Amino acid sequence: DSGVTQTPKHLITATGQRVTLRCSPRSGDLSVYWYQQSLDQGLQFLIQYYNGEERAKGNILERFSAQQFPDLHSELNLSSLELGDSALYFCASSVEPTGWNSEAFFGQGTRLTVV
Amino acid sequence: DQQVKQNSPSLSVQEGRISILNCDYTNSMFDYFLWYKKYPAEGPTFLISISSIKDKNEDGRFTVLNKSAKHLSLHIVPSQPGDSAVYFCADPPCQGGSEKLVFGKGTKLTVNP
Predict the structure, then answer these.
(1) Around Cβ B92, how many Cβ atoms within 10 Å?
(2) A52, A57, A66, B1: which has the highest count of C-beta atoms within 10 A?
(3) What is the pLDDT of chain A when averaged over all its residues?
């Protein structure tokens, strides 16, 4: 158990809908990362938050947004869903956003299926 | 922009033999690189790391080599069927550099009994 909790584990929804994925980081971790893993693709970095503030942005679509709350949990909002958004979405957390000891711990992921 | 490339999408080896997984990177300050292992339906887990000031780092059957400029390799000796997984090379955020934790596309290792 990595200590990172993602809910829900599975989500099936229709095209055009909006969903929210939730992530609780490990206790004490201030940094949260979101990744998307599509079929045959690697881990695509979406966005990173540190202590409530956005720190880095990757290949995140405009239809997607995220935030980190004062209690440090994070939510990834996906709207106007398309079939191509079907993927595994991972959340990871680490103590600090930069520096040597940047090992990140991953949750089990949320499998999103858009039908 | 940071790029991490794992050019072999898959690798198959016999149990007991050596597995060598490669990773190339560009535009990184390379203070520190990480390897992650991922089983199906699970999140990636940290495996081993290497810093730019070292030529190699060993942890049991796993060794990371800093082979040459912009090239790393992960060696697993001896390989075991339980090592069958996808292995990702990752370039973490570094001070003064990019804030992103960037992963390669991964190499799927299959160790045959």
Answers:
(1) 27
(2) A66
(3) 90
